Amino acid sequence: MLKALLYKEWIKLRWVVIAIAVLTLFSLAYSIGMINYYIEFQGALRNWMFVIGKSLLLRNIVFVKILPLITGLAFALLQFVPEMARNRMRLSYHLPISEKKLLLSSVGIGYMFLLAEIIFLFFGLWLVISLTYPAEITQKVLISTIPWFLGGSAIYFLTSFIILEPSWIYRIIYGIAAYGLIELNFHASTYDQYQLLWVFVLIVAVMPFTVLFSGHRFRRGTK
Amino acid sequence: MEHVIECKNLTHYYGDKLVLNNLNLQVERGRIFGILGKNGMGKTTTINILMGFLRPTSGKCLVLGEESHKLSPQTRQKIGLLHEGHLAYDFMNIKQVEKFYSQFFPGWKANYYWDLIGKLGLSDNHKIRNMSCGQRSQVVMGLIFAQDPELLILDDYSMGLDPGYRALFIDYLQEYVRGKNKTVFLTSHIIQDVEKVIDDTIIMGYQKLLLHMPLATLKESFHRYEFRNQQAVGVIKTDEKNITNVEYVNDKITLYSFKSLNDIKTYLKTLQIPNDDIVEIPMTLEEAFIGLTGKY
Q1: Based on the domain organization, do B24 and B91 belong to the same domain?
Q2: Do B85 and A4 touch (CB under 8 A)?
Q3: ipTM score of complex
Q4: Which of the listed residues B170, B198, B217 is the one where a domain comes to its end?
Q5: Model pLDDT for residues A126-168, shown as the tens digit of each residue
């Protein structure tokens, strides 16, 4: 049954999975170009000062801020909007599988694809930065990007949760709360600013379970 | 007798609005039931409760022995649902949807699906979203039949279908259930089609069940009488005992009743209404339905 659910989600997501992977490759290539351009333009010493003092690398890889967000949002929309359109979710709820297993498997499969994209981007980024800069800098930059990846994960889980919610008023309220929560991940403008990263990790870790709440409300016929 | 569906004192409110009031209903195995009712009579609410998508405010609705809003996966496997508007995963194509569903049902009978699909003359890669309503109905019916369920709940199966597809649907349904002890619970607004296929009829009125009986019994026992009398216009009223419904058009009076012609003549005599020209007019199920529920 899990294989069948994986098949269904793959049909919905396959083109965007490929498109995001291609976009990631382009973005990484763009970063290589930007890094080299700044080194050429500023000179190695000046560039080094900017990289250390002004966190220049975070500006060179600004797409890492956006890409996980776009991916998380796109995956959630593509997975659950077709299910909710014309109450099509009823088809899924009638499948001989428990409601919890159905919902958690659906977000689990979607997240698996999202995680694959995130890992691809993360390792690509590691490769791009480590080609030019020492390990210490690479490590600082990668740690600084973790909240952005967490933001991508959060937007995926919370968008899924909101789409599955049957009431528009609740959707709006949840949407505002979700925006506030996700936005917290994007405040840092210098390296390694997040001292409480583990708190974000814990919050994101419980997010998959929120779909059980909105999904159950839909099942119960809440208006 | 074993009941496949059993509703006991089913009551449902939407906010303050009472939609179903103490509905009691039993559906026996191996029969085809047609649930009829005018718009807003609680038909969709009843179907939604039966399908497990609505929890009743009070009362119980058992489907294959389990409460409808918490059916186990094993029981859901035995129920084929056709959702209003022939709902399907329209992002899939003909082949993909069959591959997807077949993995959930151990007794999957793919030949039922491919037989119906063969009639469409479409390629296996044809997306469901690009199909007409009639074509989609074939896909959905094929999937339900391939599932080989014990109970089929078909919500407004005729919605959006032209006469050809409606006839095809009825033909295949009749052929599918023949001799298999399947139970079918269906709704439709096209009563002349329903009449061809159902064994039992359930007619819903405002917040309650108006009637539940075999179609043959209804046809035998429910009558329409007509006569002309200007003085009697507005005099005859509906009552529980004799007159189920009465219509006046100029001096033409139409009575609907479960009483025989002689009983009605006697009743009219007690009201001192001359009725020498009263005659019984045979009815179709649709006319009987209108007689029971009224035109307005």
Answers
A1: yes
A2: no
A3: 0.86
A4: B217
A5: 998 888 888 888 888 888 888 889 999 999 999 999 999 999 9
